[in-house]
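We close this part of the discussion by returning to an individual protein. The encoding preserves chain order, so positions in sequence and tokens coincide. The sequence in question and its structure tokens are set out directly beneath this paragraph:

===
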Amino acid sequence: MALRATTPVKSERHKSVETGHVRVAILDFGSQYTHLIARRIRELGVFSEVLRYDTPPAEIAVNTGAIVLSGGPSSIYAADAPRPDPGVFELGIPVLGICYGMQAMAQALGGGVSPSKTREYGPMGFAPNTVHPLFDGLEETLQVWMSHGDEVAEPPPGFDVLGRSSDGKIAAIGSDERRAYGLQFHPEVIHTEGGGRLLENFVRRVSGIKGDWTTRAFVDETIEDIRNIVGDSRVVCALSGGVDSSVMSVLIHKAIGDRLVPIFVDNGVLRKGEELDVIQRLKEKLGIGIDVVDAADRFLAALSGVTDPERKRKIIGHEFIRIFEEEARKLGDIRFLAQGTLYPDVIESVSVKGPSATIKSHHNVGGLPEQMDLELIEPLRTLFKDEVRKVGAELGIDADILGRHPFPGPGLAIRILGEVTKDRVAILQDADAIALDEIRRAGLYDDIWQAFVVLLPVRTVGVMGDERTYEHVVSVRAVHSLDGMTAHWFRMPYEVLERISARIINEVRGVNRVCYDISSKPPSTIEWE
């Protein structure tokens, strides 16, 4: 549904055009679950957006029908604790505080917050002690997910206690006069029974937001936004062949036709046979012509001797932009660069919207140079991956393109731990191709969110043909996920793992050991770097 086509330019790259749709504004206090609140609300057909906790009230109020204060790791009575502007509670817009957000609201409005004598972490019983629209349709007692060491000891003046945990602590408060409510538990996580219904009650029954955020509306409005932004100009497009760039390309092509110039850059760290595969697939199935730039030697030279993953990402992001600028100058009348940035890229790359920690810089966000000759268009910037796939289906893009596993913009450079060299790239390309081939042969590709191989910076002793070897180790990684923000490792059948391991060791010269990664996100990330 129409979020916003973005025209981030130079020093204001991330400034966005308003969607015009009623939104739920989520003020981020640093919770690991903040993005889940946004997802759950979007699933209701209501646009939600994560903002910094200290966003001015006047800015929060724009197109906003409800406000959510997220959880966070701080203690509200700490000197450096993040606090909302008190003016947020004077806007007349319904507010829901979750965990730390409830404590921040309680303190701001005159209530008492103190350390709990017994902390509450994990599953806990909860029972509403009153009939209220917030709890409509819920059971009399629920198992909810707690994660806090402080508690609201006394509600603010005018607030009622709406429910308590099984150990008698205040777990829900509210004031219908102020239209402000608080939950000590996390309704956004799947561990909370009825959590989705509770959020729906707040959005629809308490706040009165019907929801008009649909995929069809997103397509129609974004196409119109792009036309208004671009005018008669031409646009170069960073096309990798992945889901994001393919959907973005078709979306912009529908808006401006042949004034879109897709450019595929061979950066030397692509999957095996990627260039031919992408060009054939996209030309045949999308009907879009593609310009190809062979920059493999340029990228590998820039990455020479670099081992730090953040430097790799920034180098690759910088080189990509410079190449697109050079190609735009050759074309002569290019003003815009389009790329398939997604919401998780933004959330994980920079803390531009809250105190959440930077997890890693994505090459198309944190890796961008400070000064650019081109203005950016990022029409998918506020979408999660599954939302992008829905947009692609709405645009008529084939399922085999939309079903491709995510591939990072920095490519194999961040799947090669340590220095990136031509030889190490070749080893990883071969190993990765074998793993994906066996996964497809087993009919598991579509059951997996993302599968790939990582080349580790260690060597191990082995025996091949009665001779001692001392060669590389690779790790296979496969995960389940919905939007890339959380993930669980895939239970790969042993026989598939056995075939992958045997083929890699037998067919890839330089590898004598294969491991399987069984880490989930969090605490790990999906990619190793």
